[in-house]
Amino acid sequence: MRTGNKTTSKRNLNEPQSISLGAVRSTKESANERHQRIYQVIRERISLLHYPPHTVIGEIELADEFNVSRTPIRRVLQRLQHEGLVDIRSGVGTVVTDIDIKTMKEVYDLRMYLTELISELSPRIISSEHISATEALLNRTKLMYDGPDSEAYGRLCNDLHEVLISLIGSAPLREITDNLYYRSARIWITFLPNLVWSDVIYDQEMETAEIIAAMKRNDIRGVVQVRRYYLHTLLTRISDYLRGVGHATASPMKPIVINSSD
Amino acid sequence: MRTGNKTTSKRNLNEPQSISLGAVRSTKESANERHQRIYQVIRERISLLHYPPHTVIGEIELADEFNVSRTPIRRVLQRLQHEGLVDIRSGVGTVVTDIDIKTMKEVYDLRMYLTELISELSPRIISSEHISATEALLNRTKLMYDGPDSEAYGRLCNDLHEVLISLIGSAPLREITDNLYYRSARIWITFLPNLVWSDVIYDQEMETAEIIAAMKRNDIRGVVQVRRYYLHTLLTRISDYLRGVGHATASPMKPIVINSSD
DNA sequence: AATATAACATCTGTATACAGCTCGGTCAGA
DNA sequence: TCTGACCGAGCTGTATACAGATGTTATATT
User: Distance, in angstroms, between B122 CA and closest chain A CA?
Assistant: First the structure.
């Protein structure tokens, strides 16, 4: 189909072929690296409710922000759609998915079972880096009693999740665990205004401290059991809240206004 | 390909165009439906080794076959890459992934655990359609002793898989189970020439028959335990073959009857 | 003959024009 | 005022030209 008489045969005779670019390699980002970078940025924005549910994300808007065309953006959004975080609607836009309680319950049940699998299938060796990283998270947690800060709490949860999935040796299980986490993580922050802040932080501090203790015993089974217990605790806490407001389920989740003033 | 002409009259003639009844929705295929169709076709080709590992699939080749441009094809291939079935390499092509034994072991371990979860998390009601569909598969199995037919066997396994995942009520678990199946299904067919054909078909017949029996008892726990047992058996058989390559032929597998009374 | 290098064929990655879809606003008519 | 059809702004979906990447082949040099 392409006409053979193009300028490809005599292209770039003017430009020097290459002036030994050995050191400049780091400046160039490969396509896959860029994809991964944009993907993680947008996924974080969704998980931190910077893009709350029902937000319409425009492809052109993102393309301008990341200085690319719509094509790589669409690749990212299609991946996010397949992971259940957005819904691409023709003629409308890319809409951040809502948080459906029933689905969320299923995801949480799955996560609790899979968490136990981590210790049975292919645990990795717990290194001192794991421990020190988790201790840093514990310190960040202790500084958060002062006042509600949903975004900081969300980042804390995400970072703890990152440490824990790095303990999973089985690549498929790691991917699934990661995927399910980001599918369900938003509900924590969504319900945050309805819970007692200091209780939430206390849970987080206890979980982190117990995980560190288990890590120091090199007890990965203990780690995942702690994790599983706190997953259960939070799910129970949210269920209790939902039962408590029972009738007033018109808008169980108010969108949190994240201060995005510019 | 349709340049500016709005009419859909010049569509594919080999596809039966439905006669316009009241609802004419089926005349036009939506973008998502087309994506799903192409995706399933290519995934089946990979699972049946119609595209064996290391096959290079060209985007233009597929685009011509499905009468679309590269854009929708790329969307399908990117999805398959994310699911681990192909590897898209810039400047080279889209390469069907090889079957790595270590990863396959991890996937099989995961599948066995997840299979048990099916009966615990959210089982669906077993309908008569499920039973009759499975009985049809049993009949197909019984006709296959005549001679080795890897492709027919692969289709049989895929169809049985379809029936079983339709019993999963939890959408996330269903997706994960489906994904892991297609990640690992190819290894069955790959090792088929090294196994005794009649033994393989006998296993398949026994598994299907026992699944039907459990279905008729409305015993979904029994269904998944049968499934789990045969997963384990096949994995063991392949492991045995790999350990004893050269001097030991595949040992025939003893069928057992699962006692699923609790 | 062996080897390094340059040219090339062919593939994927990106940008972009345009087609198709959705929804809200607008305006004529009852 | 109400209704309904229509139109247009703005979005996603598709096709395509071109840029970049990669493996191979031809060629020059030793």
Answer: 8
The confidence band for A245, taking pLDDT boundaries of 50, 70 and 90, is low
Residues of A in contact with B182 (CB under 8 A): none
**Does residue A250 belong to the interface with chain B, where contact is any CB pair within 8 Å?**
no
Mean pLDDT is highest, among A75-79, A144-148, B243-247, for A75-79
CATH 3.40.50.150 given to domain A30-96: no
Distance from CA of B77 to the nearest CA of A (A): 11
Closest CA to A164 of A188, A186, A180, A187: A180
Burial class of residue A205 in the structure, from the number of CB atoms within 10 Å of its CB (0-12 exposed, 13-18 middle, 19+ buried): middle
Q: Buried b / exposed e across B125-154, counting CB within 10 Å, b at 16+?
A: ebeeebbebbeebbebbeebeeeeeeeebb
**pLDDT band per the 50, 70, 90 thresholds, residue A258:** very low
Task: Give me the amino acid identity at B137.
Answer: L
CATH number of B101-243: 1.20.120.530
CATH of B29-96, one of 3.30.360.20, 3.30.413.10, 3.40.50.150, 1.10.10.10: 1.10.10.10
Q: Residue B93: enclosing H or E segment and its boundaries? A: strand B93-96
Q: Which amino acid is at A130?
A: H
Residues of A in contact with B109 (CB under 8 A): 121, 170
CB contact under 8 A, A31 and B90: yes
- Could A171 and B82 be called an inter-chain contact, meaning their C-beta atoms sit closer than 8 Å? no
Distance between CA atoms of residues B258 and B262, nearest Å: 12
Whether this prediction's pTM lies above 0.90 is answered by no
The amino acid that residue A100 corresponds to is D
Q: Find out whether B223 and B231 touch, Cβ atoms under 8 Å.
A: no
A75, A124, A173, A178: which to substitute to probe chain B, counting the most B Cβ within 10 Å?
A173
Written out in words, the top-level CATH class of the domain with range A101-247 is: mainly alpha
- DSSP string computed for B36-49: HHHHHHHHHHHHTT
B80 at A interface, C-beta within 8 A = no
